[in-house]
Structure formats: structure tokens, C-alpha cells
Design a protein that fits this description.
With 323 residues, the chain is of the alpha+beta class. The protein has 2 domains: 3-157; 191-322, VirB8 protein (Nuclear Transport Factor 2, Chain: A, Roll). It is built from 10 helices and 5 strands, in the order αααααααβαααββββ. It has helices at residues 3-14, 27-71, 77-92, 112-118, 121-127, 134-160, 164-215, 222-231, 235-243, 245-255, and strands at residues 217-218, 257-269, 277-290, 299-310, 313-322. It has a 5-stranded antiparallel sheet with strand order 1-2-3-4-5, with helices on both faces. The longest helix has 52 residues, at 164-215.
Length: 323
């Protein structure tokens, strides 16, 4: 309430209406005082109406905040607060003329106590109790903040505590896959070992046959013996032997000896073995008989033989005699 309004109310309290009062002499002065009292009453009622509208706006704002806190995230309360503040601002703009009553009371029927009561908007404002919604608002905000956290913890609990049936199924799948992988590995390893033994036996047989042919000669059949050596040879060893075949034949014929070779042991070097070649270590013995039939002591040989595939057949490609 403005200072002027309060002063007028105070003046109204201090000036009672009485026929014996010397200050009021005419009916015109009484009408003037009555009009003044009516204006002050109208102003007081307008202020009281504005106070009631402001209190209503505050109540609506509190209710809106509580409702929005339950249904929306806390961050959206700012928008609702702005809407409520706009409604309160509109309520503050109510003028005294909007709430002035149309009925005029007789000044004689208005007592100083009634004027004092109606002209006390401050008491009306103070008497209006504002609802205390701070606890409800805080509780709603806490619930809105705790709800996502509880949901996240619930999902984490489900992830951390799998069912026993799921664990058992996962373990069974792992065991089955491991067994299948082991079986496949064993099958492949067995096939590889079998194939390796087969090729090693093939190279070993070719080396034994080549060494026996190389150490078995008969002076009566020297040319046939030399040709057999050429047939089991390939590569550089064959080329070199072909060049010296005639001289070798003459030496055999002139020596008048017969030699019969045999293989005592052989071993394939697996590190050098491929699909088409391998290195074979051979221990051989040759029994020599001269033309008179006398046998000489057996001759022992240690050879490093390289066996290579030539036209689908394994032959000697290199021969080295070890001392």
C-alpha cells in the first residue's frame, strides 16, 4: 500500500462522523467525505484483489513445479517456471478500476472499525498462507534424479548375474568347439604324418635301388651295367656320367671283376624332403669277385644321394661318396 493510501486510512480513523462535530457544517462537505471514503475503500479492495491474485499465482506455480517434477526431467522445470511467472506478472497488472465495486455504501452505515478492516491490505496479504511445497518439490526432484540411476543399476545387476543355464550352455559350447578343433587338428596331423612317411619310403626305395645299380657291375655285361646306371640317373649326375660312360665301360671290362652291391641302411633327411626331391644317407657294401673266382674283402661305402623326380620316376640327381 502506498504512503498516501495509508495516510488517508489513518485520517479516516481519526475523523468520526458526528452531528456535533464543528468541522462538518454542510451536506456538501459530508458528500465529499463520503466520496473520499468510497474511493479509499475501492482502492483497498483493488489492492486486496491484487494480493489474492498474486497468492493464487504463487500457488499455481508451486503446483506446476511439483507436477512437472514427477513427469519430466528436472531440466524442463525452468520452462514451466517462466510460464507461471508470466501469469503472475499479468495478475500484477490489474488496476484498481478493474476491481472497484459498483455499489456505493452509505457513509453513515460504515463504522470506523469496518473502514480499518477493509483498508488493511497488508494484513490480508500477511494473513494469506502460502502452501509449503518445498518438501514435496525436493522429494519429486530426488525421485526424478534417482529413477535413471536405479534403472541403470538394475540393468547392471542383470548383466553381472547371468543365469546358471546360460553359463552352462556357454561352457558346453566352448567344450564342443575345443573338441572339434582338437579332432580336426589330429586328423590333419595324422594325414600329414602319413603322407610324409609315404614320401619318405618312396625316396628311400629310389635311393636304395640307385645305389645297388651303381655298385653292381659285371665285366661280361659292362655296357648293360653302364646303361642301367644312366637309366636311374638324372640332372647333373647323368650328364657327367654320360660323358665318361665309354671310359668307365673299358675299365670294367679290363678289370675282369664282378661286383654285387647291397644297402645296409638308409635314412631320409626330412628337412630337405619335398614333393619332388629329398636327400638320402646310404650305407652300402659291395662284394667283389675276380675272373678266377676269388672273392675279395667287401668294400663299404657311405654315400649322400639326392633323389629327384624325373618324368614321374625318382632318379639319382647327385651322388657324393664320403670317406
Amino acid at each position: 500500500m502506498s504512503g498516501g493510501a495509508r495516510q488517508n486510512v489513518a485520517d479516516t480513523k481519526l475523523v468520526p462522523v458526528s452531528e456535533n462535530d464543528d468541522t462538518i457544517q454542510t451536506a456538501a462537505e459530508m458528500r465529499s467525505l463520503a466520496d473520499q471514503a468510497e474511493a479509499e475503500a475501492a482502492e483497498a479492495e483493488a489492492l486486496a484483489a491484487a494480493a489474492r491474485a498474486r497468492a493464487r499465482a504463487i500457488q499455481l506455480r508451486r503446483d506446476a513445479e511439483v507436477a512437472e517434477a514427477k513427469a519430466q526431467p528436472v531440466t524442463e522445470l525452468v520452462v514451466q517456471e517462466a510460464v507461471v511467472e508470466e501469469a503472475a506478472a499479468k495478475a500484477d497488472e490489474v488496476t484498481p478500476a478493474d476491481s472497484v465495486p459498483t455499489e456505493v455504501q452509505d457513509i453513515s452505515e460504515t463504522s470506523p472499525e469496518d473502514v480499518e478492516t477493509e483498508a488493511s491490505p497488508d494484513e490480508a496479504i500477511e494473513g494469506t498462507a502460502e502452501p509449503d511445497t518445498s518438501d514435496a518439490e525436493a522429494s519429486a526432484i530426488d525421485d526424478a534424479e534417482d529413477k535413471p540411476e536405479r534403472s541403470r543399476l538394475r540393468w547392471l545387476g542383470r548383466l553381472r548375474r547371468p543365469r546358471w543355464s546360460t553359463v552352462a550352455a556357454a561352457v558346453a559350447i566352448v567344450v564342443i568347439l575345443a573338441a572339434l578343433a582338437g579332432s580336426v587338428y589330429m586328423v590333419l596331423d595324422h594325414r600329414h604324418a602319413t603322407e610324409q612317411r609315404r614320401r619318405a619310403a618312396e625316396f628311400s626305395a629310389a635311393a636304395r635301388q640307385g645305389v645297388v645299380t651303381l655298385t653292381s657291375l659285371d665285366f661280361d655285361h659292362a655296357k648293360e651295367g653302364v646303361q642301367n646306371i644312366i637309366d636311374v640317373s638324372t640332372g647333373s649326375f647323368k650328364d657327367d656320367f654320360v660323358k665318361m660312360a665309354d671310359d668307365f665301360t673299358k675299365v670294367v671290362q679290363e678289370s675282369k671283376v664282378i661286383s654285387q652291391g647291397s644297402v645296409q641302411a638308409d635314412a631320409v633327411d626330412l628337412n630337405t624332403m619335398t614333393d619332388n626331391s629329398a636327400v638320402v644317407l646310404v650305407a652300402s657294401t659291395s662284394e667283389v669277385t675276380n675272373a678266377a673266382g676269388a672273392k675279395q674283402d667287401p668294400r663299404k661305402y657311405r654315400l649322400i644321394v639326392t633323389v629327384a623326380r624325373d618324368g614321374g620316376r625318382l632318379k639319382l640327381s647327385k651322388v657324393e661318396f664320403l670317406p
